[in-house]
Amino acid sequence: MKHVLLGISGGIAAYKSAELVRLLMRHGYIVRVVMTQAATQFITPLTFQALSGHPVHTRLLDESQENAMGHINLARWADIFLIAPASANCIAKFSHGLADDLLSTLYLAAECPVYIAPAMNQAMWHKAVTQENIKRLTQHGIMFIGPEAGSQACGETGLGRMTEPEAIVQYFTALHAAGILQGKKILITAGPTREALDPVRYISNRSSGKMGYALAEQAQLLGAEVTLISGPVQLPAINNVKIHLVESAADMHAAVMRHIAEQDVMIAAAAVADYTPDSVQPEKIKKQGEQTELNLQRTQDIVANVASLSNKPFTVGFAAETQNLEHYALDKLQRKNLDMIAANWVGQSQGGFDSDLNALHVYWHNGEKAFKMTDKTQLAKQLLTLIVERLNA
Ligand code: C5P
Does one domain contain both 194 and 123? Predict the structure, then answer.
């Protein structure tokens, strides 16, 4: 049974949190409530104590409360930290790491997933600084539920209403419905790498990272614990996915090796540079003469190194080709000791590297399957379903 730590900050929507506690408990969650001082002006702690069956925590330095369950223990107890309603002030404090009361201190101490259901006046919601705070928190992996549009307690109409308790509970029950990758750990590489020539130049490729990020997002939604090792891309962070940003093929290799133990599956969707300059020039290279040469050396083959480990995970590679797709894909499957390879055409008018669409032809030992051109989210779901089938085969 999941432990929900429910934080309530000061706002008229705090009255809705009473129903939220009731519904969460009806769905089998165990709930403990933390309130800010401002929240207690809107609704009494006694209400939540009666509903949750536990004392309500309101102060950081309260001897009796700290003895019963100190703030660090409370943070550790939680499987989910949900703040509903979250005021603009509460969001601003989280975003800047302030910890001047129990709720904001718990945010800093919490290591579990954090969900925020904002509630505020529509002008406060749209204010640039609030939006910046939300962006920062999203980049830190915090999930936002709502807000919704509609009429507000202040008489205005717009975005800022707290999502209704039924919808919040539905969000969690859907999230916790056992997915086909429940309990599995997946490591995914994504994006291009950058091989530096000098302080301002590098060699790279057209990979957008979209396929790897779609795989990471879908794997997470299917219940996997996902680690994403990403080269430089223009893509937003993904809820509940640990992202490690790297630059070069060597950095990506090191990051993968640091995280590979205990992974059940590795999917190498990154377009890793095959060659890197012999050395990085400390100063900008000056132009000289009509021609020049670059001395390059081979990089380590990350996916092949993973597949050669004695306790290797189920290892899936990608083959992006402009010709002889099947031949090269099967060669890579064998040579790199992979369990599966997903091959796709690149350099065509539709699909591939820098596109939202793709088509894949997947090969494994004694089998193959073609996935038609579709968006990368759909394709990610199809590929992950196939991986699960092969894992269980
Ligand atoms: O040999 P090729 O680069 O075409 O193989 C592509 C597959 O190998 C992809 O899955 C890619 O992520 C992976 N790869 C790698 N490390 C490299 C080169 C490729 O993991 N240095």
Answer: no
Q: Is residue 154 annotated as part of the catalytic site, yes or no?
A: yes
What six digits make up the tokens of 341?
Answer: 């390879």
Q: How far is the CA of 268 from the centre of ligand 1 (A)?
A: 7
Q: Which of 205, 251, 302 to mutate to test the pocket of ligand 1 (most atoms within 8 A of CB)?
A: 302
Q: What is this structure's pTM?
A: 0.63
CA–CA separation, 195 and 202 (whole Å): 5
Query: Of 126, 149, 175, which marks where a domain is finished?
Result: 175
Question: Confidence band (pLDDT; 50, 70, 90) for 2?
Answer: confident
Q: Which two tokens stand for residue 182?
A: 């429940």
Other CB atoms within 10 A of residue 10 CB: 19
Query: Which residue's alpha carbon is at the smallest distance from atom 17 of ligand 1?
Result: 301
Mutate to test the pocket of ligand 1, among 272, 328, 336, 346 (most ligand atoms within 8 A of CB): 272
Mean pLDDT, residues 375-393: 90
Q: Which two tokens stand for residue 15?
A: 């009255």
180: in domain? no
Domain count, the chain: 2
Which residues on adjacent β-strands are paired with residue 35? 8
* Digit-coded pLDDT (tens) for 340-373: 999 988 766 666 666 788 899 999 998 898 898 8
pLDDT tens per residue, range 242-301: 899 999 999 999 999 999 998 999 999 999 999 999 999 999 999 989 999 999 999 999
Q: How does pLDDT run across 68-89, given as a tens digit for each residue?
A: 678 889 999 999 999 999 999 9
164 plus 261 within the same structural domain:
no
384 and 219 in contact (C-beta within 8 Å)?
Answer: yes
The reply to whether 137 and 238 lie within a common domain is no
